Structures are given as C-alpha cells and as structure tokens.
Amino acid sequence: MYTKQEISRQKQAFWTAFGRYMKPVLSTDGEVISWLNYKTGNKHVQFKMDADSRQAQIAVILHHSDPDRQRLYFDGFSRLKDIFEEELQEKDWSWLREVTDEHGKTVSVVQKTLTGVNIFKNEDWSAIISFLKPRIIALDSFWGMVRYHFDVIG
C-alpha cells in the first residue's frame, strides 16, 4: 500500500518523464505543444490521459452545462467517427454518451484503456508511454481536421 505522498511522487515522476519524452514532438500544425495539458481551444472538449495501479487511459471528454448542447457535442463526434477511427488507426474505442464524472457531472466520453499496467512499476512506464504517445498525437491530428465543426455548437 502506498501513502498519498508516495502516490503523488510516483505519478509526478511518471508525468514529468512523459512530458520530457514528448517535448520534442511538435503538434500537427508544427508548433511546440504541452501534450500533458493539451488545449483544444474549445472549453467543452478536453483530452485527458491518466494512469494508475491497474491501467492507463486516454479519453476525449465532452462536457456542457446545457444537456441539449452536451448531446450535440457527442452527436457531432459520432458523425465524425469514421474520420476518428481512420486517424487513430483503430476502432475499439468506447463511445459513452452519458457518464457521471468524478465531480458528479454528466459528460460524454470517448476513451481507450490499456489494462494490466501499473504506473507504480517503473518497468511498466514504457508500455504506458507506448500506449499514450501515438494516441495523443493522433488525437491532435484528428482535432486539427475537425475542431471547426464544433464552433457552431457553442
């Protein structure tokens, strides 16, 4: 069992290592980017990466205070699913229209999970990085192609 401090320290060490590993990678637009704090430019669309003692996960989180607009965001992503799958070169992402996040809010999530890895085992770090890196880069490419489709939703 890990203390809160050990958990925090290990997670910080991993994300610092991941950030250093990704630092030389430019965005699709050829710009320097903070991959850990990826900014979509749309406050209702977030890319999130996470890892813990059981899994690593990458997700697109769609959130809006207006439930109808929330559904419009998800429906818009769903209509672009073919482009999404082509850009990410995989079809087995989970598309969840309505889930409750850790803050009790209803969000939509498009996610992919790698099970059987542990952020607290340094020997698993390469597997976690190999899982996250190509997907966050592909999400950047996808988002560069489709982001303007979501400007009209607001």
Briefly note the structural class of the backbone: alpha+beta
Our Rg estimate from Cα atoms comes to 16 Å
Task: Please report the distance between the alpha carbons of the first and last residues.
Answer: 45 Å
Q: Which regions are unreliable across 5 or more consecutive residues at pLDDT < 50? A: none
**Average pLDDT figure:** 94
| Basic shape | globular
Strand order of the largest sheet: 1-2-4-3
Order of helices and strands: HEEHHEEH
Beta percentage is: 15-25%
Query: Using DSSP, what is the number of strands?
Result: 4
Q: Give the number of domains.
A: 1
Number of helices: 4
Largest sheet composition: 4 strands, antiparallel
Helix content: 40-55%
